[in-house]
Amino acid sequence: MELNQYLEVFIEESKEHLQACNEQLLELEKNPQDLSIINEIFRSAHTLKGMSATMGYEDLAGLTHQMENVLDAIRNNRLVTTPEILDVIFMAVDHLEEMVHSIASGGDGKKDVTETVEKLKAIEKGEPLSSTAESEVAATAVMETAKQSTYDEFELTVLKQSMEQGFGVYEIEIGLRQDCLLKAARVYMVFEVLEKIGEVIKATPPVEQLEEEQFDEDFSVTIVSKESPEDIKGKIMKVSEVVKTIVRPLEFDEQNAEAVLDTAHNENEIESEPKPEVPAQSTGTDVPAATEKKSTGKQQGSNKTIRVNIERLDILMNLFEELVIDRGRLEQISKDMENSELTETVERMSRISGDLQNIILNMRMVQVETVFNRFPRMIRQLARDLNKKINLEIVGAETELDRTVIDEIGDPLVHLLRNSVDHGIESPEERRAKGKSEEGTVVLRAFHSGNHVFIEIEDDGAGISREKVLKKAISKGIVTEQAAAGFTDKQAYELILSSGFSTAEKISDISGRGVGLDVVKNTIESLGGTISIDSKENEGTIFSIQLPLTLSIISVMLVEIQKEKFAIPLSSIIETAIIKDSEIMNAHNQKVIDFRGKVVPLLFLKDLFEVPSVPSEDDFHSVIIVRKGDKMAGLIVDSFIGQQEVVLKSLGNYLTNVFAISGATILGDGQVALIVDCNALIK
User: Fold this and answer.
1) Which of these, 633, 609, 495, lies nearest to 560 by C-alpha position?
2) With 0-12 CB in 10 A as exposed, 13-18 as middle and 19+ as buried, what is 362?
3) 566 near 637, Cβ under 8 Å?
4) Phi, psi at residue 662, to the nearest 5°?
5) pTM (2 d.p.)
6) pLDDT of residue 149
7) Active-site positions?
8) Which stretch of DSSP H or E encloses residue 198?
9) What are the tens digits of pLDDT across the range 103-144?
10) Cα-Cα end-to-end distance for the chain
11) Among candidate residues 307, 241, 310, 230, the one with its CA nearest the CA of residue 272
């Protein structure tokens, strides 16, 4: 079978299962007694093992198999969850992620994981990983747990009464072929056989998990029957793809009130010989009708969604962008010709293409969870490295963003979170001294507001010291002492976003080796977003990021400067107005106006972009008030054309770093309009 065609699906699904393992392990760390979490992790690990073996990645399958054994021991009460065991499982998941990343990068997925495999084997056997007292206590707990009865009070009563009435009680271990494709069907057939010869008292794993195929190849059943062990074994072995059957008689221990193996009659323990390996076959007669029906139902549910290569969505988006350009052209032609039938047709086409645009944009939307889900593990490790206690809360992970934005936002968020953990949250000792709880809280929050998505990172740490920031900024030459004196608190805090600024007393790998947050700021602004900071000393800090929903199709205000057209993004515009010459004032050699009680500087775009113009004696000026954070500016243009949705196109490699221009668009009349970067103008 040609497996390359399945490689992409394998990589994507492996990443999903490993992420699920990470998330559930973090939950298990908080609730080590919750077996439902163990079952979820086991399910992901088991599926990953099967996929890896099928694709021929033996190292990946081998490590997952050993991890699965440990999880199986925990969920069957042969092991108890300890921090030491969790650390090894976390390490195994890290190795698995590296191997999958290697495969995704064109590698073979091979990695020497012998040390981790040996640790997992030691855990499975109940051996201590080290000579520490904690390990010895854990090992003792494992042995004590293993000695406990696996039957509850009701089951023990049934077993005791059955034995008193002359029935035989047997614990039967059954093994299926490793490559068995319909495990649930085989289990169903085994249970059909057992129910004809006796009464099933208990199954391990439970029946629900067996039906969902949440087990490896082996499972066990406790049965009450009058048939001999040989007959029981013979009937079970007739079920296809069963390769092992061990029948162990049980007796009731009156003193300890528990069911135990009948060790006095070892000759009654019957183990079958494995069947010869033959290719698995699935026929209509092998699978019960009820099982077939259930399987079909699952297939119907799974067909509601399909995986689409992102490159296909990019092609679809590019084609639609061309359609938007042609739509604008048709609207212009219709307006010029004044033909009613053409106008109606174009209006209908505009409505339909608008609906199509919404569908295509929604197809490209991805939940920010895909970025957020990597952070809990990172925070856990940082907290350990820094000897801090930190609780990460994630809110609004279902909030959606365009894929192009999602791809870029991950690294800035990593930097901001590391900054909050390293500089924001204090040590447990400091927090106690301040009357705070030892555990600090970092909240990662996402939500929609209008045509924007906001992502906030909030901590309840030490906050930002205004004096310390201003002192550092003055010493670095970022701001003068005179200017600093007039700064608001918010302006002072945002100085930490300046290039080369760092208040760290010593460089660390965690806080970014002294590199300031200017890299974060630049990345966010390149996405058409903004970042702001609010802080209260000894109470905490909030970093707030505002991002556009999508980058490719944007709403703009078209303006004219002489014969040239420019587009200004609506997301940056507060208001448009007409002002008189008499309203323009001068302050510090800068033309300004009074806008609703605030002094706003004016920029004449014809001068800024050096547009050839004829002197005008007009006393009125068209002005657009734009904003970036809490800063504003007024852009003077010749006239307003109106609002329009346009396709943002890059200027190309030859026109990189053009000041205050973020791209261009093709208008309905075929002209090219440059898109103004308001953030750069205000900066």
Assistant:
1) 609
2) exposed
3) yes
4) -95, -10
5) 0.53
6) 43
7) 46, 68, 419
8) strand 198-204
9) 887 888 888 888 888 889 888 888 776 543 344 443 333 333
10) 59
11) 230
